[in-house]
Amino acid sequence: MHKTLLTFKRNYSKVLNDITSTYSSSCLEGVNRKIKQIERTAYAYRNFYPLLIRTKLEEIIVKEKESNNFFLAA
């Protein structure tokens, strides 16, 4: 607990800036989580290219689901 409080004390201005800011990194964090999840399930890929294709396919699928939900809610 003491170490955590010292970290907050050292980064006090950054923490305040993050709390008062209107910007959010949640979208970026979601994308990073999806990529890490794909990496975990795709450990057998021999090179980077199939992993890249898989991430792009997942991105397209997610965008299609979001657009369908938007039209259904309107």
Can you walk through the features of this model?
With 74 residues, this protein is an all-alpha fold. The chain is 81% helix and 0% strand. The chain has helices at residues 2-10, 12-20, 26-41, 48-73. Helix 3 packs across helix 4 (48-73).
Layout of helices and strands:
Blueprint: H1 2-10, H2 12-20, H3 26-41, H4 48-73
Helix pairs in contact: 3-4
Alpha carbon gap, first and last residue: 47 Å
Helix segment tally: 4
Please state the structural category: mainly alpha
Strand tally is 0
Mean pLDDT: 78
* Poorly predicted parts: none
Helix content: over 70%
> Approximately how much beta-strand content do the residues carry?
under 5%
Q: Any idea what the shape is? A: elongated
The profile of the biggest β sheet is:
none
Over all CA atoms, what is the radius of gyration?
19 Å
> Secondary-structure element order, as H and E?
HHHH
